[in-house]
Design brief:
The structure holds two protein chains of two kinds.
Chain A (H helix, E strand, L loop, with lengths): L1 H9 L2 H39 L6 E4 L12 E2 L13 H9 L3 E21 L6 E12 L4 E12 L19 E13 L1 H8 L21 E3 L4 E9 L6 E10 L8 H11 L2 H6 L2 E10 H12 L2 H5 L9 H6 L15 E6 L5 E3 L11 E4 L2 E2 L12 E2 L4 E2 L9 E10 L25 E4 L5 E7 L16 E4 H8 L6 E6 L7 H18 L2 E4 L4 E9 L9 E9 L2 H38 L1 H9 L4 H34 L5 H18 L1 H7 L26 H11 L1 H32 L3 H39 L1 H9 L4 H35 L7 H6 L2 H19 L15 H45 L17 H17 L5 E4 L13 E8 L10 E12 L4 E2 L2 H4 E5 L2 E3 L3 E8 L1 E2 L3 E2 L6 E11 L5 E5 L8 E5 L2
Chain B lengths: L2 E13 L2 E14 L3 E5 L6 H8 L7 E6 L9 H11 E4 L11 H6 L11 H11 L15 H13 L5 E5 L7 H18 L2 E6 L2 H5 L3 E6 L2 E7 L4
Parallel strand pairs in B: 3-7, 3-8, 5-6, 6-7
Antiparallel strand pairs in B: 1-2, 1-4, 8-9
Chain lengths: ~1100, ~230
Amino acid sequence: MIRFIWQNWWRRKERFILLIIGAFIVSAGLTYLIGLSETNKGTIVDTLQNRWTASYDIVVRPEGTRSVTENKKLLEPNYLSGLSGGISLEQYETIKAIPGIEVAAPIAMLGYTSYSVNYGQVELSEPGIYRRIMKTTVNNGIGEETEIRNYYFPINVWDLKNKGSEYGVAAPYLDFLVDGQSLLAGIDPEQEAKLVGLDEAIMELGTSRYFVDSDTYYFDEDKGYHEIPIIVNKTAYVDKLEQITFEKLDIEINEENADAVMNKVRENGGEDYLDTLSGEVVDTFSVTGKETFHAFINRMTGVDWETGEVIVLEENEEEKSEVEDPLEITSHVDEDVSGIVFKPSPLEYQEISSPYADRWPYTYQVVPFQNNADTVGVYQNKETFREPKLIAEDYLDLPRMKPNWIGFYEASNLAISMDPTTELPMETYRPASAEYVMDVNGNPINPPKQLKPTGDPYSFLTDPPGMLTTIEAAANILGEKPISAIRIKVAGVADLSDESQAILEQVASEIENRTGLITDITLGSSPQLALSYVPGLNGGEDIGWLQQPWVNIGSSISIFKETKIGFSGVVGSVIAVAIVYVWASGIVNLLARRKEFAVLLSIGWRPRQLSRLLFFESSIIGIFVAVTSWMMLGFVYISSDATISFNRFLWTGLFGFIVYVFGSFIPMLLTRNISPYEAMRTGEISGKSKRIFQTKGINRMAFNHFIGKWKRSFLSVISISLPTALLAVFLYITFRLRGIMYTSLLGEYVALEIGPAHYVAILVSLVIAILTTAEIMWQNVSERREEISLLQAIGWKRWSIRRLILAEGVFSGLFAALIGLSLAFIIMWGLYGAFPAEEIGFILATGLIPVVIGVIGTIFPAERAVRIIPNQGMGGNITNRKAVEKRLKWVVISTSVLLVGTFLMTMIKVAPNIEQANDGNEVEYAFSPTEGEASVKEPKDTDEQNVNADDADDEITLIGVDDYLFQFNSSQTSEDVGWGNQLFYAAKEVESTLVIAESGMKAVAIEFTFEVRDSDYDIQPKRNFTLIHGEESYSPEKVTILEVEGWENEEWLLEREDGKMRAVLEFKVPEDVESYGLVLKNKTLGYGVLIKFGK
Amino acid sequence: MNMIECKNLTRFYEGDGTKTIALRDVNLSFMKGEFTAIIGPSGSGKSTLLSLLGTLDKPSEGTIAYDNEEILKKSKSKIADFRFQEIGFIFQQFHLLPTLTALENVLTPLFSRKVPYNKLERAIEVLEQVGLQDKENSLPSQLSGGQQQRVAIARAIVHKPSWLLADEPTGNLDTETGERIYDLLRELNEQEGCGVLFVTHDPALAAKANRIITMKDGIMLSDKVGATP
């Protein structure tokens, strides 16, 4: 039997090649779609569900807090930071009691707490008029903003009593006093721990711990302040440098002429006049915002209280008002008591038309707030991005509080998405990122700059909360309605599905009914890039266009759904087309051999024997397909270490087998209808022939033939129309989703990850459709040999015959287009309930594809028809000549090798990409920065090379800038550059003890000495020091500490213990490195210190 | 099986409202060992009669009894088995399987059948019998018409049937080759003792048969004893 089958195939080689090609394409297609893409699809599902998830499913807010942007289902990043109260504790308890709610985490934005840190006093003894210059430099990422405030005072020369401000001078202000603002928020410790794992993010540092029940609020009646427990964000995000300089003015003044000189100063314009005078620097001090915040925290941890070094300045009440900070509460009381002055407020956006609607469909303009004369001092008559709101109308009513430090938390350790590529800016634990992408004139900024928060409560970007307290404390300070939002997590909602959505909707309406608050379902939100135009303030130049990832509420549910539909649909259609192909070829095979079968029946074969024959044939091809798939998968598996589960591996092959075996069932049934009597008949096989038109020309003749053989024509039409319909639908979905898809990061990711698989699938189906058509037309031509040779005999031209056959292909294509497009419209109607009026043009254009397919499928059979020689007898193409055998053997072998080779090459190329893309994301995830500078990379940059390039860029900018806090040569010390008062720092090269085995490398040893003189510095030699050469940087291989004093926790060199360290750092560098720099960068030294070695 | 008996055999085809009667009320009986020719013009129903006798088709009315057994009432498989055991068919167009060699073609009826003899030896034997021992491995396309028909005859006799039914076996051949095929059939009839029924256009060939049945318009005109005894 096997031999019989084999002979039958082998001696009809053209058909056999078609069969083999078909089997290869089916197995390759199945291998790709089931074996490989499924893994890919799995990744996407995981990615969607795990990475793009917000920590909460529903957000509850008070009435009227939705911003304009929410009309478009867009939430601005860190929208929670701009809300201020509105929900009562009662409402909160009500919500908590609603069944099904797993976590209800309230947040109450208390406001901005001001704090100040005094770094000591300048010693001025020489009589004269002095100038205190307070220079604040804030780096907002785009540029540095510098603010200089001058303050004048006399020392030992002129009595200030009863003198007004017209003299331009005031009481001596000798402090190195720096202040800052930090957002304080109230949370429910228990719920917050459940929601984002805040308890797990607490740092182990001294007595640092999470809130416990005994951490309660207390109001100190005597002193009139609130005592509240707080935990503090260890990371400060503001990049600020404060520099205080004292200058002695070049003005001749002594006790004798003081009055005269000062009167003259007054006459010349007081302070304005003094501003014009030059001076001589007496002392200078600088400190970064981080350091200030750190010192403030340091003090609160109790460390500094022990030494009691905090000096309360009592004499400067009047001067304070002149430092443009009349609200500086700390000047009146203990420094550890600070005040809450400003309430958070939202930005006001106005929708504007987008300059590049394709890229940024959502564009807004920030509307600045114009303050009037009634506004509080700092903002009086000025423009601000947000409306300044005081926590109390009357200055004296401003709440004062004494924070009781409980612990530190590290925001990067929270259980929230920290991957900058997939950031969903809903959590408020990190500053919102904003990229400066275009200047005012629309010129792109390349590379885009990352905007940083400035620390101003009413700037464009706000800081995330720097301190957290309890809801109880918040309620006591803010009164009746302290909570600004409640984040809800609902039980039983795990994945993005309609069921989840239904549960959430139910819970949300329950909340609305019971509390009257407004709810928004945030499950399935995805990041969405939006563009904001930021104007300049107070007559300053406009800033330009900023791009920010916003939150597109609920968008990923639709993307996810459509992705799922799309993918399953496409895979389903490939399988359907494959089955149709297998059926078609089975039926065609049967038709071609019908007479043969009739003869076999007439010579005594049982009908069942015929069925068995067909079944065997199909099984053999099925096994061949299965083995081919397994081989391909195995090869891909070995060569690209893609992981393929055993089940999937098994099924990929089995599936091909099953398709072929099932494909044999219809022909098997059809054999029942074969009567042995057919062997007696001659001439037309199908006695019936339908005709609609009278045959008048080639086209009508072809059409009549097409209709006459409608059953088989239908098969080819179906096999072409299925992929056509899917192509049209997929293209439509793609175009329709453009709005959501290509502009949201998630959509872009999905489109990039799934898109190719879709197109490959459609391509595979179309190729199979070509094969089906070819197969059917082949049979038609075979059956019409006599007809065609007759036509040739009566003088038809070759081209006419070709046209006759091709015309049939065109008809198949036209019918396929008709059916395919109708199917597509039905699917679209089913999916969206609307007709795609806008895209109708391009959808109709896809109707051209089946026509082309029909024609391509017919070319081969048409050529065969043309070659029929009028007098050619029966069976002329069946041969067993040795030469032909050999040649055909080669053709078959080389075709197979070529096909398999091409497929494997593509697979090997594609599969590692899939892996790499995933790896790339993981890498990024792994070093996901904990600070705000991380840039949001678009998913299309996950291509490894780009990632590297980006990283390299970052590195260069880090090292390339020679903007250090200060720098000197190895022969100098910090004293030589004016830093002797703060610290002593020097380094020299010494003999290295490192043994370098690698060739081309050498060891460099540097011994450094570091002594603290004014305050604490953190030094961790292994981490803080790097050796730089050009753009390369090296970390120490070995650190030997020679001498150390006052080194707390192996991190802090304490001033009170005369902290000092002498150590040897040993580096491994390339041999050609002669001159290099030693960079010391730590928390307290801001921009770092560079010591230059060599030339 | 020794006898085939037809009673009131009628066969008509219905389609598109018209009814074509191919065979009308034929009563005939055949004995094993007879050499019968069926003669008549085109459309006289002789091929129809042959296919009914060969169980390839079923009569619309009437019965055919093979040794008093109505085989056609049995299942398709049983009918196939009957055909295998008792009947060998020879067609005008030879109907060899184009992808198989002469030997393989001869073997086809024996596929998946259990027989008491060696299949291959039997096939070679019958090929020798028809004088084609040197053409075993030729494809039908490499054989002449007469050779092809001889292969077809070999195929028809390989399973030792009691009856040989031939539908215009010489119709596609020239007179000389036709003669040789006729002689071969005659030989088989005499040596193997199987009944031969053959349809022909050629009165000269028909005249050589033991019994000549003349058909016209589906009706049997005459049934007479031929020239040669």
